[in-house]
Prior knowledge:
2 domains; Rossmann fold; 20% strand; seven-stranded parallel sheet; 12 helices; seven-stranded mixed sheet; 345 residues; homotetramer; alpha/beta; Dihydrodipicolinate Reductase, domain 2
Amino acid sequence: MEIKAGIIGATGYAGAELVRILLMHKCVKIVAISSVSFEGKKLSEIYPSYKSLCDMECKNADEVVEKSDVIFAALPHGLSQELGAKCDTEGKAFIDLGADFRLKDEDEYTEWYGGKFIDEELHKKSVYGLPELFRDNIKGKRIIANPGCYTTGAPLALAPAVVNGLIEMNGIIIDSKSGVTGAGRKPSQANHYPELNEGFHAYKVANHRHTPEIEQTLSKLSGQKVTITFVPHLLPVNRGILSTCYARLKEGVTKEQIRSAYEEFYKDEFFIRLLPDGANADIHNIKYSNFCDISLHIDSRTNTLVAISAIDNMVKGAAGQAVQNMNIIFGLDEKTGLVLVPPAF
Amino acid sequence: MEIKAGIIGATGYAGAELVRILLMHKCVKIVAISSVSFEGKKLSEIYPSYKSLCDMECKNADEVVEKSDVIFAALPHGLSQELGAKCDTEGKAFIDLGADFRLKDEDEYTEWYGGKFIDEELHKKSVYGLPELFRDNIKGKRIIANPGCYTTGAPLALAPAVVNGLIEMNGIIIDSKSGVTGAGRKPSQANHYPELNEGFHAYKVANHRHTPEIEQTLSKLSGQKVTITFVPHLLPVNRGILSTCYARLKEGVTKEQIRSAYEEFYKDEFFIRLLPDGANADIHNIKYSNFCDISLHIDSRTNTLVAISAIDNMVKGAAGQAVQNMNIIFGLDEKTGLVLVPPAF
Amino acid sequence: MEIKAGIIGATGYAGAELVRILLMHKCVKIVAISSVSFEGKKLSEIYPSYKSLCDMECKNADEVVEKSDVIFAALPHGLSQELGAKCDTEGKAFIDLGADFRLKDEDEYTEWYGGKFIDEELHKKSVYGLPELFRDNIKGKRIIANPGCYTTGAPLALAPAVVNGLIEMNGIIIDSKSGVTGAGRKPSQANHYPELNEGFHAYKVANHRHTPEIEQTLSKLSGQKVTITFVPHLLPVNRGILSTCYARLKEGVTKEQIRSAYEEFYKDEFFIRLLPDGANADIHNIKYSNFCDISLHIDSRTNTLVAISAIDNMVKGAAGQAVQNMNIIFGLDEKTGLVLVPPAF
Amino acid sequence: MEIKAGIIGATGYAGAELVRILLMHKCVKIVAISSVSFEGKKLSEIYPSYKSLCDMECKNADEVVEKSDVIFAALPHGLSQELGAKCDTEGKAFIDLGADFRLKDEDEYTEWYGGKFIDEELHKKSVYGLPELFRDNIKGKRIIANPGCYTTGAPLALAPAVVNGLIEMNGIIIDSKSGVTGAGRKPSQANHYPELNEGFHAYKVANHRHTPEIEQTLSKLSGQKVTITFVPHLLPVNRGILSTCYARLKEGVTKEQIRSAYEEFYKDEFFIRLLPDGANADIHNIKYSNFCDISLHIDSRTNTLVAISAIDNMVKGAAGQAVQNMNIIFGLDEKTGLVLVPPAF
């Protein structure tokens, strides 16, 4: 099989990472890429690391849609709904790395993003593409809302405990730390090298847009309305998100129950690596790969579960998961093109 | 006034940082330093950055005690009790950067450190030297238990809320992130450059030795027995600790009450910088200084206080605070030698 | 084709990188690995990034030789001669990432490494495996001396100018800067995170062991005895070597002649990317790949060629080149398994 | 004595570093600061590290000149001549951290900077402020051209060999590596964290504007017209410049002659630390200080001197040296306020 893939917004970080991954995918050919800022330029002029590997020229979005079987869009929110409609009409698969289709509740979308649902039917056709949690819903769909970065790692750390009813659903705290690529390619004072290097701080404390998306997932898994406290931080590294998740254990729940719930839940998931007792999830070990490493810790003095996940924000938290979704909807083995070995250093 | 200062364990990181600070202190003269590993070597051979500033030779501990008015000890735990006794006998001030005198409860000391109190009277004479919280107790004392790094930043972030009874004392979560110098000077696989660089992970999850020390402080401030969940992480930076502290607000407590409690509590504290609303404490801004920056955030969706503190683990979290304690017990202005300007980059 | 590959010294950095690359090579199966320090342990216990990808146990060297068609050895110098002899006797291919077979002159080997040639015939059977310069010699050989890291990047930067007689062969200066993985996996004070981070220095100035190896290559290319000044430096990054090479242009040589000589020389070389005028080779653009990027600069005020190359010290400077050599001697397309996309960030 | 100091361009990196240093200088009071971009804002809003230490508001340049005894200007080139004239007229000392007064030859200024000398007399009144080399000229002057960063470290590494006629003055190569603060505070794609981190490259190869300034100094010291090859590189660290300088030894010059020439030349220079044989200058050891560390190496195989200097580009390479110049012209001990201890980590 050769899938013709197109990337809209290829010069942003998520778009560029899609290029890296798709270049190594044996069933995919990148047929067109676009960029508003760099139309007419070669991708390898923007990213010299791709020289001789992807010297393709950036075109406009229409050309990408026309030529492709599957369209990946890595755009600022608000720009994907129209594009999704177009792909839908033309019978093409649309995998959206932006936020437009992620929240199912329009009011929440309006509250957090300030926009409206243009076409409610389209939103109903779309599916939230977190395969390890919602794989069955994804099959057969053509409009995929690819989850955000924080919204992948944190729910995966908590899901088995939630689904099995082992933790209290109120009072959950998610303390996440992300590498700088999460903030995008555009230079800013905050991410200017000398001001970020050797620094570390929280940002958007308790008001980051990924909050309702994490809550939506946890609510769906638990069958009740969940509200969390979510605090993201900026790490002076390029890639990776570590999410330290805190939840009170329900009365009587043991360490062993927790572990066996996780082992059972993830036993067939190639991309989830449940670490042995005593190990600590580390972003160092999953960089450049689609893995999500999870370590489990019980604070028996306070009866608290501390579940920690590590993902590459650009792979499992963006481009890799998008390709995983593509594999699902095109009927390929989910691992195809995604057995990316995380370097040892 | 010229205080004759000696440093035992001068070649470890905390000892070396004491040298840096004391060299710039106008009322202090370093008269002797010691090191078990490097006896007979010049300090500037170990740390070439000190060349021509401190070319003093490392002697043994006895010589340091003999020559000094104040002895700073930066030793592994278990080695300070005897030394403290000796200083006490000879009428010298003893400031211990190790853990031996920090915990007041011998059982806790035994549980977490595996040791015993050699001389209970000596422990009673000692005081826990966190000036912003316990200044009045420090004056007039000669044996100071200098707090650990995590145990300085986290309590300072929570103290005003605790003292004023604004938060629930159960369910407190402290998620801390420390620079690598906290792990000391000794090379290890974990802190070998290529394995730490571009990585990030938690360690000693819910079982770090600083846990009972933080609890001791919060218990003292609140008047009740407090148990916390404490998770430290290792940041790929040299210096700094950011502690993100989570506590449920008591019913009806407002954002304004929180802020005014903090403003009042710290209004005369030079080393505490309470940041304006909207700002985020950042280790970038306190490096190489004795400041503790604090930012306050309220998650009104879950009624949670998120108080974040940033300190330099080697200064306010070790050597700087030790000098602050020295200033107090010698009757100097507490800021003397400690108005260290944190570099802008 | 399925080549059975074994790695001796798999737990060092070069060995671990070989694992990463061979895992993605479609014609290779890793059949055995060994490690003196970790015999009996799983590789993924040493390098958790390989969990579920290479959970193979470390055996001893004999077992590796026995099971493999090709043996890669990543050992300290002095240990490969005997191993090479054994592989030769058993008719197996031997690719040595150590230094034992690199220098053709025994006196030089003795001077710089302090050892002797055990079996001169074996050394004659061996070939220096820098494919872009000596490809024809490599074909048909079974004992390959894989070049060192500095000794790959610097000669590639200069080769076209040397071969075409465009530069003076005396007075060549090579100023190289290497990432820390070049110093190996063993923790040391110098490479302890806080002492290396935010630092930069030269080391082994004008007496690094790679000096005679670079000279050997340049001498072979130029047909005359070449002596160079070589100064390596340690960069606070994990990977990559940038070599800034200075040589006086011969009288009358123009910028255009230089460029066209390089274009011609490297026109069929996939792994050499000659950058356009105005661009600067950057280790950022070749990390994790087998590329060698080269930028050319002429200082017309002093008539000096400044040729700069960037390679990943662990890939083109070690494991990647070893696999490239394997591809050659097994008759595979040289790029097989080596079209590794350098990430954009 | 209390010197009233003003800083024009206080929000750039050099200006901000001047604030840091002057705040710790016991004979100086900062009376006014200015910034075109941030007029009306507090400095501590731009640099939160200065909160409670310098909450002064940015004014305009006129106000600074009016209130100050000494005016430091850290401005883009072309803006200092007029300002210098004004200070001269008003009898105030003017220390220019920009390039306008550095080159004595107007043609060179025009060639490299594209500007003209507005008032030749003013240029004659000015002096090039590199104290270790030209101290006697500086005394009594009121217009100081503070050297650039590269142009401080490289000449200091070579001066004793030049002055004593120990090296050939043609063929000198200076390979420098600078921290990122040298590129200024303004965000750019090149210095966006993820694109610089883990990268390393040369820039402005053989055409950097500091070339004629280094040549001017070496020419003055040697009494002949010197042309050099200068290649700067960008290091992924905040601060520091390491310059590796290569020069052929004159016939018969010995290692001992070199060392004794350096020892003699710098024997009374507090800020120059000549390292012992075997040591390597490292930017790690001079950060945040006004020191220039120099290590000497002889390549006896090629008869080449390799002299390596390490300075903090923002201190000895900018703000620290400016204060050193101020101390000289105000008759203070040159070290006043500049015994800044470089941290051990």
